[in-house]
Design brief:
Blueprint lengths: L19 H10 L3 H12 L8 H11 L11 H13 L4 H10 L6 H10 L9 H21 L8 H11 L6 H11 L1 H9 L38
Helix pairs in contact: 8-9, 9-10
Length: 231
């Protein structure tokens, strides 16, 4: 008798029973079968497995799943998820922790569904998706520089975090900065030619004797001077 752990084709059989509660929750949340398929495959792909739509449909039928009351999703909840995801780069565990502390009732898969439905994916699978995300970032930068020249003084990391937060896209840092260097080569060269001084080995008589504030000199380009005063 053939083992239940393998299919007739010799490939490892996917144990969907361990995903049953998650699938039930996503189903109750109101996700389509194709969305649920993407959610499960997002985990299975790390194990070298792929779930087919036909297999998922058959298992849903076997389980007799039926729609229940959907989780209520408000714009406030979506905005909070977007804030933690793009601004702070939190993991799902950290997002759930803070949302629950704020009084939201939300499960792990409800959070993941919200992310997927609102374009907050942690991994990009295809070249087309990567190109689409880069185009969104390019368009954002082109429009943003029409309002302010601030981005011309940004370095690689600050530019990446700025676009991540303001444009709401997870674009590749290298691809973004390569585009930026092409559009603003003079600004990049000016930053590279600056005589950066790295201070180390400070010796102070006690705590709070010396404070360091990084990045404030960027404001000098726009007529703002930042001074620290100690009394």
């Amino acid at each position: 008798m053939a083992s239940n752990s393998r299919t007739t084709a010799g490939r490892p059989r996917i144990d969907l029973d361990r995903f049953r509660d998650q699938i039930q929750e996503a189903w109750n949340f109101g996700l389509s079968i194709s969305d649920i398929l993407d959610l499960i495959n997002d985990e299975l792909v790390q194990q070298g497995q792929v779930l087919t739509l036909r297999t998922l449909e058959r298992r849903l039928s076997e389980w007799g799943l039926s729609r229940q009351t959907r989780t209520e999703v408000t714009e406030i909840l979506i905005d909070r998820v977007r804030l933690y995801f793009f601004k702070y780069g939190y993991s799902d565990t950290s997002i759930l922790r803070d949302l629950r502390q704020e009084g939201f009732t939300i499960s792990e898969y409800a959070l993941k569904a919200i992310r997927w439905q609102n374009g907050m994916k942690r991994r990009v699978r295809t070249t087309e998706e990567r190109d689409q995300i880069l185009e969104i970032a390019k368009q954002f930068l082109q429009e943003d520089i029409q309002r302010s020249a601030a981005i011309k003084s940004f370095g690689r990391n600050y530019l990446y975090n700025y676009v991540r937060l303001k444009a709401g896209v997870l674009v590749s840092q290298n691809r973004l900065y390569n585009f930026y260097k092409t559009r603003h080569p003079e600004e990049v060269r000016r930053r590279q030619e600056r005589n950066w001084r790295h201070r180390t080995d400070f010796k102070v008589p006690g705590p709070n004797f010396l404070w360091s504030l990084d990045g404030y000199e960027k404001l000098k380009l726009f007529g703002f001077q930042v001074c620290l005063a100690f009394f």
